[in-house]
Amino acid sequence: QITLKESGPTLVKPAQTLTLTCTFSEFSLDTSGVGVAWIRQPPGKALEWLALIYWDDDKRYSPSLKSRLTITKDTSKNQVVLTMTNMDPVDTATYYCAHRATIGLDYWGQGTLVTVSS
Amino acid sequence: QSVLTQPPSVSAAPGQKVTISCSGSSSNIENNYVCWYQQLPGTAPKFLIYDNNKRPSGIPDRFSGSKSGTSATLGITGLQTGDEADYYCGTWDNSLSAYVFGTGTKVTVL
After folding, report:
1. For FRET with A87, which of A21, A81, A93, B46 sits at 20 to 30 Å CA-CA?
2. In a 3-state reduction of DSSP, which class is residue B84?
3. Which of B19, B36, B51 is nearest to B87 (CA)?
4. How far apart are CA A49 and CA B98, in angstroms?
5. Strand duo B9-12 + B105-109: pairing
6. What is the mean pLDDT of residues B33-37?
7. Which residues does chain B have within 8 Å of residue A108's beta carbon, measured at their own beta carbons?
8. How would residue B1 be classed by pLDDT, with cut points 50, 70 and 90?
9. Cα R_g (chain A), whole angstroms
10. Main-chain phi, psi angles of A22, to 5 degrees
11. pLDDT band at residue B64 using 50, 70 and 90 as cut-offs
12. What phi and psi, each to the nearest 5 degrees, are found at residue A90?
């Protein structure tokens, strides 16, 4: 059974950089077609797709956040890391990582709530 | 703001049917497969429908999907209290080169 778990700070200050780690099991980011995506959800609001990294290290970013996001992978550790710079209170959200198969985002982590406040 | 539009809410009595629309464009729904995700209160989203109308293993056949042109639809028959959740459509957008989600629809069982 594929599992993913997000980890990182629960509280960051405005203007700081957020670093989140997605640790996964039962799949490899070496496998053709596989990817890991990051999605966020502000309290009471809709899902927002942030970024995706593929098995071949190809990367895609949300156009509206591209300048602030970096996604990387460490295949040996089964981890994907997302960094978001210049955090603002509007970035307060639950951040999810998800396994990307060719058919869609089929497995999701439990999510981690990040609050941006001074 | 999302490029995929859904109604904010739908409701029906137990045992009845609801449909949820997802309206997009030629850069997303019309030329890509659509997925649907179910988010029960306080939980992570769950993969519900893929390739417009296919159900992953374990998803009951009360859930169905369809697509026509630039719109997709999720149907839920035999509505149960356990179906109360937020539902999101999702697909790739070729113009944005990004995945996009719908605005989300809250299903209420009366």
Report:
1. B46
2. coil
3. B36
4. 8
5. parallel
6. 98
7. 44-47
8. low
9. 13
10. -110, 115
11. very high
12. -70, -10
Please provide residue B45's backbone torsions phi and psi, each rounded to the nearest 5 degrees. -60, 150
Note the pLDDT of residue A97.
98
Q: Which residue has the tokens 């649907």?
A: B36
In chain B, what percentage of residues exceed pLDDT 70? Answer: 99
Smallest Cα–Cα separation from B14: which of B82, B60, B75?
A: B82
Average pLDDT over residues B26-40: 98
The nearest alpha carbon in chain B to A111 belongs to: B44
Taking one residue from A and the other from B, the number of pairs with CB-CB distance under 8 angstroms is: 60
B92 touches chain A (CB under 8 A): no
Q: What is the mean pLDDT of residues B42-57?
A: 98
Q: How do residues B65-100 score in pLDDT, each as one tens digit?
A: 999 999 999 999 999 999 999 999 999 999 999 999
CB proximity A39 to B under 8 Å:
yes
What whole-number distance in Å separates Cα of residue B17 and Cα of residue B15?
Answer: 7
Report the C-alpha gap between A24 and A102 in whole angstroms.
18
Give the ranges where B1-110 is alpha helix by DSSP (H).
none
Question: How many other β-carbons are positioned within 10 Å of the β-carbon of residue A63?
Answer: 12
Please give the pLDDT value at position B2: 81
The residue whose two tokens read 């990367």 is: A59
Amino acid making up residue B97: S
Q: Can you say whether the dihedral through the CA atoms of B40, B45, B50, B52 is positive or negative? A: positive
